[in-house]
Amino acid sequence: MRITCPHCGSRGLTEFSQQGDASPLRPDDGAGEAAWVDFVHFRDNPRGEHRELWQHVLGCRTWLVVTRDTATHAILRVEPAADVRGRPRGRT
Amino acid sequence: MSPDAFRLRTGGRIDRTSRLAFTFDGRRYKGLAGDTLASALLANGVKLFGRSFKHHRRRGIMGFGVEEPNALVTIGNGAAAEPNTRATMVELAEGLEATSQNRWPTLSLDLQAVNGLAGRFLGAGFYYKTFKWPPAAWTGLYEKVIRHAAGLGRASHAADPDRYDKSFAFCDVLVVGGGPAGLMAALVAGRAGARVTLADEMPALGGRLRHEDRRIDGRGAMLWLGEIERELAALANVTLLRRTTVFGAYDHGTFGAVEQLASDDGRLPRQRFWQISAGAAVLATGAIERSIAFAGNDLPGVMLASAAQGYLFEHAVVAGWRPVVFTTNSSGYATALDLVRAGIAVQAVIDNGPVVDSATARALHEAGVPLFRHAVVERAVGGRAVTGVVMRDELGGRRELECDQLLVSGGWNPTLHLAAHRGGRPRWDDQLATFLPPPADGELLPVGAAAGRFALEDCLADGAMAAVDLCRRLGHAARTPTLPGTDEAEPYRITPLFAVEGAGAKAFVDLQNDVTVADLRQAAAEGYRSIEHAKRYTTLGMATDQGKTANVTGLAILAEALARPVAEVGTTGFRPPYTPVAIGALAHHHRGPHFAPVRRTPLHAAQVVLGAVFFETGLWLRARYVPRPGEDMAAASRREVQAVRAGVGVVDVSPLGKIELAGSDARAFLERLYCNGMATLRPGRARYGLMLREDGMVLDDGTIWCFGSGHFMVTTTTANAAAVLSHMELHHQHFWPELDVQFASVSEQWAGLAVAGPRSREVLQRVVDEPALDDASFPFMAVAEGRIGGVVCRIARISFSGERAFEVFVPAGHAEALLDCLLEAGATDGITLYGLEAMGTMRIEKGHVAGAELDGRTTPRDLGLERMQIRKKPHIGAALRDRPGLTDPARPMLVGLVPVDRSERLRAGALLVPEGAEVVQANDLGRVTSIAWSPGLGHPIALGFLAHGTERLGQRVDAVFPLYRERVTVEVRQSCFVDPEGERLRG
Q: Which CATH architecture has domain A2-83?
């Protein structure tokens, strides 16, 4: 498996570490327990397009959102996680 | 028998002047340089190579290359013995020792061959049905008997003495297979300037071209081959890997390959594991001939027709002087003609198909070879080897023909394995009666025979066109070359035949696993409709050869038995590796001391000189204790603890994770990372900090050193240094990118010592120029950047031992000098270098939590640190830390434990149950996490987690360790055994 890091180019799997699903947004601090339980514990396991958090841990250390097809393993998109929303809109 | 009894006087690509001596089953033989073990033994007239897996039937050589199912031998002896090696793939070397397998006591007299007589009872699923009752007999009796009787070679059980290498390769175009298609692809791509890697599993390039009498551009094909090879070798952008098997295709153009390297003198590693990243790959792996199932088709002397050509052209070896050819397709005729031209008396060509007028057939007829059409071989006849065949014509008439070899061609199966490794399903082709690779997916282009295009001109054209296509896609201007001209050959035609009608119980499909036509039909009759199930039930294709000659035949027979089209039954999944790969090659350098990298602190060498004994903690090698002559670990660490408690000691704390943070939002960032407050942390002060995960469990602990309102350094535990940094990076980059904070690991930049004990301040002050370390200006939890002999240092008054103590960090290059200065300055105070054992003892005495307590299952409340948490502030873990399950008062919490009988030892990992209670889930009260023998108290102590811990103070519970049948009654104490008020710490 290879991932094209936006900073470093095409690199082998061993340079990266995987954190899991990138789709859940970190709830507002005041959000209820249900929202947090959902964020922390529940994940979809789709066949097809899936957004995942990867870190180029043995490279530039950038966290990436990798959009990957779980059926074909094709990588459709790689973006720095800093450019991808990690929280609901409009709050801090 | 003469070593050349079965070798022609001329021809072959062997060196007739170079004789090589070798042994097979202890008997001495001679071969020639250029032989394989298989060709050399055939030349010596050896027909029997092994006994079959289940029935112990006599087996000879079937194939020429990787497809060989029968001739598995063990090469070498002792630890280096390699079992299950195909004799066809072993290049002969002087002194080679080979041994046959699965026979007892000897190959020619195998007493277990009686299995063969009982064979009609050893059908599919035999073991499942027979060896069921009683259950105890399975491990005691059945398994032993079966393992002795069935099986292939045996592993040596000794460590592999060979060395293995690993390399990475990057190329634009990977060409798998160096036959005509692969060579054309490499040539066109190479000429266009693309980076090309061509891998072929054989010692010499050329593939099937080497085993047929063909002409290219009006000359012998070998001349053309030599020219191409020279041009490829001269291209700097082309890498040729011979003896290299590409065994797996993985995602995104990644391929695994193993190259055979072994040289006679042992200078080279045995194999090299290649990880190849390719822009695209050309699959030019050719095709493998298949056999036909008929009675006795496994007798020694029955061989694939193409193999006979291989031995003839490569080694000038013939396995028989009077062969019969049995074919379903046109290539059998070509084989027969090549043999006739070499002077071999081909007895007959038997073809199940109709009369087709072809140049080959005419030439054979003219040479006087009888051609039988609409006929089949019903049975091979012979005892120790083939002596004849029973032929049956279309009217059912039988006739026996004498022969000393039976060459079989059931048709050709494209070697499509790599194309299916990533999940693509092969497609059935009725015309060719075989499976073709799944459609090309852009990363892998099957060409030539691998794509079912068997004609030489198609192979050459396919290879060239694939290269042009890939090069253009990769941005290289490739020109379509003028294709070399080939001599005319008849087009491939086949009349499909997988099993001869009326084939008895002993018509074999999978020779390596002894699977017969009857087994497959029985599986179908018993309801196995899915090919994946039938495969596992019959073990079709599950031996070390993975059914290279068997699978397609087996599928076709099964489909017929199920009355379904083959296309619908489909194939089983193809998974790497294509051929067996030694685990040693995959592990390559990563074994023994190189299994994982070793991290040593900047103070390692100095501590070696001082006599420290080291041990592994994670990747780190750390000083465990520093014994004086005659001391064991217990004595040394007890002395070290006493030295710290009474005077002063130093310990290497360099492996602590250290992260430096700066920025106007650095404090706000820390507030969110830690569950305790950072708002009031002033410059010049440090604070203990507890990090949670989002689920409320403790992630890590450490100290936060404040150097300025926007400048901090935090320490992490050694074990979690990398995880904490990643955790901080994720939250900063993804969740809170608006925060103005920058941070970096400085773990390796700062090396450090903890200086601990009542005399620590005096000794440290002797070497520290600034700051002043007196209580007033540098109280407990003070930090400062200071100077030691002109070198910058960072000092904090922090204690892990419970004594007055300091952590001092200096740039890593000055660590040894710092240790020297401290040992010299403290000599008169008896300063003592101590190790992790003493440090651990002191932290347990003090009730400080460490890795054993911070195991990802504990909350601040469990650790007795609940009051540290700031209730109002948002931080990681705040939302979920107060869920009912985590605030349950019955949740085990941190306590101290002391054995009632002070002489009894405690064990970390012991379970806590009520006194005298049975060890069952219902009685579970918690667990022991850390144990030590306290020099101060003079008896064992422990930390653990106990339900209703605070309510049980002073009560007794049992610490049980069922594995060793141990039960120790312990008294529950506060977790802090020493100086609970912290007077020594602050004083």
A: 2-Layer Sandwich (3.30)
